[in-house]
Amino acid sequence: MADRPITQGHTRMKLNSAYLLLILPLTLLVTACTTVPDASSQRATGDLGIIIERAIGRVALVETSTNTKLADIDGLGDLSHASAVYSRDERYAYVFGRDGGLSKLDMLTARIDNRVIQSGNSIGGAISQDGSLVAVSNYEPGGVKVFNAHTLELVADIPAIYDERGSQSKVVGLVDAPGQRFVFSLYEGNQIWVLNMSNPAKPVVTKYRDVGLAPYDGLITPDGRYYIAGLYGEDGLALLDLWHPEKGIKHILSDYGRGQEKMPVYKMPHLEGWAMAGDYAFIPAVGRYEVLVVDTSTWQQVGRIPVHGQPVFVMGRPDGRQVWVNFAFPRNDTLQLIDVASLKLEHTLKPGKAVLHMEFTPRGEHVWVSVRDDDIVKIFDTASLEQIAEIPVDKPSGIFFTARAHRIGL
After folding, report:
1. Arithmetic mean of pLDDT, 46-67
2. How much is the pTM?
3. Looking at residue 148, which CATH number applies to its domain?
């Protein structure tokens, strides 16, 4: 009697073992069939990016880990002043074309997922804090349109009407801000507006009037606190503290601009190309061969650094140790490096004709440089300054990497 349970147990064990041997291959087969992803999803997106090919309405899809071009995506319209942002998961890029086109690109399948013509002339865009909304700033008709990031269906239309006569302004300097907000400037209206989209069904607009003459561009600091608009019609900048919006607009850097001696300006510097490094902001001077150094705790200028030409983009390496500068025509074959610790010019590079844009890899070990007139993108090691690769690209301009895209207001 004592042996019977043991015998039954052995019998059950043998049956169970046989059963397992029978179903295990089937289970593995079913599991394999249900968990193996399709080919398009076997790549992560963190090292991908796009380069705008401005002359032919195309972008080059690139990978930073191997310094290679993976594909071309055509059919994007007028990209003469194009910019891009990425979805929260980095799967999709939203490209804003000058012809009013808003194109949603699938980074994994290298194709256009969706595209709408939402205005006559647009100048840039932004994606909301939670990634659910994409906003576009428009010249014609002036205003901002907000779209569902998944479907590109229109969510809100905010005309930039700035006076009782119904005058409508071009919109510039559109950025995303914390709290599901977008901030932008009205060029003809001399205003800054804050659009709160916390409730997409009921957008709320707060308007700041008489901020200065002809705001032409804007930026938001990396922490999302300060929005700063450049003024084309007068010297100085307009600053809005988004932590304390009730304080209104503050004018800073009253000497910033062309000054009393009106210098020829070959290209107005991009405010979104400012560098924030350490305790300083490095700002391209307007019409002068200088980079200005500003203390961000007081917003007072504390220095100026002579450079090769009129600076356009002044960009900080991700670790904040260096600032890289490119220049307007006709001195646009050059890059210069500023050492942040000493506030002195450190190195000069000559990548080629018409250096339009640069972008750092996420941790700053490499920098990609658009050399438009040579139809090439050159890649440099930021430690040795040696060129390590180059990629043929048709008339390259803006470079946008996914893993750098989660900075506020990119």
Report:
1. 96
2. 0.87
3. 2.130.10.10
